[in-house]
Amino acid sequence: QLQLVESGGGLVQPGGSLRLSCAAPGFNLDRYAIGWFRQAPGKEREGVSCISFIDGHTYYADSVQGRFTISRDNAKNTVYLQMNSLKPEDTAVYYCRMFIAPSVYWGQGTQVTVSS
């Protein structure tokens, strides 16, 4: 059974940084696009960033463009989300997601709280 495992969340002050990781123990991620999503209290889940497997093409939501960077380390079978210049509005549970037709796989989420 495929499982995605996120880590790296925590409490950080505004302007700080965190790096989230998404791993799939025992499963090679290098052939699949991986996306990061987030859900803040009382809000719908939204897409943050994704990375393709073919050419490493990346996508970012306007709200994080220039502050977040998605990357993948195929040797470590891990996808990262480097988050810099964090703002209070970035506070949410962050999830990674993978689509292998016809199923969508989600991790359990990791909490990111940006507060002074």
Oligomer: single chain
Q: Specify Rg, calculated over alpha carbons.
A: 13 Å
Structure annotation, total helices: 0
In whole angstroms, how far apart are the ends? 40 Å
Low-confidence stretches: none
> From the helix content, strand content and strand pairing, which structural class follows?
mainly beta
**Secondary-structure element series:** EEEEEEEEEEE
Proportion of beta-strand residues: over 45%
Spatial shape: globular
Helix content: under 10%
Number of strands: 11
Could you tell me the mean pLDDT? Answer: 94
Q: What does the main sheet amount to?
A: 7 strands, mixed
Task: Spell out the blueprint of helices and strands.
Layout: E1 5-7, E2 10-12, E3 18-23, E4 34-39, E5 46-51, E6 58-60, E7 68-73, E8 78-83, E9 92-100, E10 103-106, E11 110-114
Parallel strand pairs: 2-11
Antiparallel strand pairs: 1-3, 3-8, 4-5, 4-9, 5-6, 7-8, 9-10, 9-11
Structure description:
This protein is mostly beta strands. Helices cover 0% and strands 49% of the residues. The strands form two sheets. Strands 2, 4, 5, 6, 9, 10 and 11 form a seven-stranded mixed β-sheet that branches. The model has no long low-confidence stretch (mean pLDDT 94).
Give the structure's gist in a few sentences.
By secondary structure, this protein is mainly β. It has no helices and eleven strands.
